[in-house]
Design brief:
This protein folds into three domains: 355 residues, Alkaline Phosphatase, subunit A (3-Layer(aba) Sandwich); 73 residues, Arylsulfatase, C-terminal domain; 50 residues. The two termini are 35 Å apart. The relative contact order is 0.16. It is of the alpha/beta class and 519 residues long.
């Protein structure tokens, strides 16, 4: 498929895929997907924030504002879900973010938005924070459909030293890049601009820009912090405001580059936050209840805007419930690429709702779980139509407690009126849906931990600490007998094998091979 599409890009053929969901020109649109990290509901200008976000506001004014857009409560699950359209609980990446001391990450056989667009003839790039696995080669962006990766693998990476757990964490396609002293958001902006400018102009592109800001550590240029001296300096609010401001400037630079390249009108620009803001670090989700890590709407209902002139009506506000899981099928429909998804997905195509305001009844409820920041304190939620059940589960040493909150979020969007005691049957129905969904979590999926195992030691450089499949397992060759392949693999690793050991290995491997053939 990719070889065929390469022929297309070289000019041998021109194939136009038409979609029933929209009318497309012969040139497929570019896609720029921008993700803020921990941006609060009330921290964008179009929601009345005192923080200046003219670039984000411009996308809203010139496109569609999604007022009921939901993400996961924490970082890694949102990133996993938006790129695969599959509930992160199926992936084992739901309760917790991927910490440096985990070896968890995306499975080798997951099919990402990047791969779908790559198979559809796009060039693909990511600039920014990955946070979907860092220890094994198949977990990294370059093995997950991205031609180009400039950024860092972890969260909480220092904005000036670019280190996490004292290990260097800034790279370009697997090779460490040292820019110590440069503010990370500035680096990300320049790299995004450079990617757009240096692209192959004969092919459409997909650029994924998951910014690090305004996630901790709370750091910003002094002059930008000074700009918000009118904001209380208590806590991190002033620094947080400066970080959001810097991110918005970076978004503006991306938009400006699209204009300079004269491709602004044929580029779908999406901006979302990966979860709600953290009150502790200065985020503001008012009037929504709750914050990052919980499952009240303040944690999961996030700012989201999308722009595509000529296809989306400017200044439109959409109140359709849309999920981060919907981005993949919606963008596939909007771009018109012809791909076959290898696995069933949980996301739904919301392109008709964005394009012409069509009301879409979701085929299945939306689920949310989190065990951050307190291990053993589990937040769950399900949204089914207008009804939402929130569960707060506390796992103690000798007992487990459960508090339930039932809301009609259309009538009560700030979740102040708990209907649970008056509607036990509805609570029981929604609780059973949560139970069924949680049962899909793999037995070895991640659960919350705040600190590493006492024996864990971080690498000094994260780019060089990745293990390839060859290092992790012996991969058998089909060209040699089973026993000969084993000996060949051992020899390639510089291990001297004497005749006696060689014969023992041969006999053992032959027995294993016979057993496999018998099975």
């Amino acid at each position: 498929m990719r070889q065929f599409l390469q022929l297309i890009s070289n000019g041998f053929f021109l194939l136009v895929f038409l979609s029933s969901s929209a009318c497309f020109s012969s040139a497929k649109p570019n896609v720029v997907l921008i993700v803020a990290d921990d941006l609060g509901w009330a921290d964008v200008g179009y929601h009345g924030s005192p923080i200046q976000t003219p670039s984000i506001d411009r996308i809203a004014a010139e496109g569609v504002t999604l007022e009921r857009f939901y993400a996961a409560p924490i970082c890694s699950p949102t990133r996993a879900g938006l790129l695969t359209a599959r509930d992160p609980i199926r992936l084992g990446i739901a309760y917790d973010q991927i910490h440096p001391w985990y070896n968890a990450g995306l499975a080798r056989d997951e099919y990402l938005l990047s791969e779908a667009l790559l198979d559809g003839g796009y060039q693909t790039g990511i600039v920014g924070k990955w946070h979907l696995g860092h220890s094994q080669q198949h977990q990294l962006p370059n093995a997950q459909g991205f031609d180009h990766f400039f950024g860092h693998l972890h969260t909480n990476t220092d904005f000036y030293t670019h280190r996490r757990e004292n290990g260097h964490d800034l790279q370009h396609n697997g090779v460490s890049v040292h820019r110590s002293g440069e503010y990370l958001t500035h680096i990300e902006a320049r790299q995004a601009e450079s990617y757009i400018e240096s692209r192959d102009k004969d092919r459409p592109f997909f650029l994924y820009v998951p910014f690090t800001a305004p996630h901790s550590p709370m750091q910003a240029p002094p002059e930008t912090i000074q700009k918000y001296q009118h904001i209380s300096k208590l806590g991190y609010r002033r620094i947080y405001a400066a970080m959001v401001d810097e991110m918005d400037v970076a978004v503006g630079k991306i938009l400006h580059t699209l204009e300079e390249q004269e491709i602004m009108d044929n580029t779908i620009v999406v901006f979302i936050s990966d979860n709600g803001g953290s009150n502790y670090f200065g985020g503001n989700n008012m009037p929504l209840r709750g914050q990052k890590g919980q499952t009240f709407d303040g944690a999961i209902r996030v700012p989201a805007v999308i722009r595509w002139p000529g296809n989306l009506k400017s200044g439109t506000v959409v109140n359709q419930t849309v999920s981060y899981l919907d981005l993949l099928p919606t963008l596939i429909a909007a771009t018109g690429v012809d791909v076959q998804l290898p696995k069933a997905i949980d996301g739904e195509n919301m392109w008709p709702a964005l394009r012409d305001g069509t009301s879409i009844k979701r085929d299945q409820p939306l689920f949310f779980v989190s065990e951050i920041p307190v291990p053993g304190m589990i937040w769950t939620a399900v949204i089914d139509g207008s009804m939402k059940l929130v569960q707060v589960i506390r796992e103690g040493h000798t007992e487990t407690s459960l508090n339930s909150f039932l809301f009609d979020i259309h009538k009560d969007p700030t979740e102040r009126n708990n209907l649970a005691s008056r509607n036990p049957a509805e609570v029981a129905r929604l609780a059973e849906l949560i139970r069924q969904r949680r049962s899909l979590h793999p037995l070895a999926g991640t659960r919350g931990t705040l600190v590493p195992h006492p024996g864990w030691i971080p690498p000094s450089d994260w780019a060089s600490a990745v293990h390839s499949s060859d290092e992790l397992q012996l991969e058998w060759s089909n060209e040699l007998p089973f026993s000969e392949a084993l000996i060949k693999q051992i020899g390639e690793r510089g291990v001297l094998v004497d005749d006696e050991t060689r014969e023992a290995l041969r006999q053992q491997s032959m027995q294993t091979q016979k057993a496999l053939e018998k099975d």
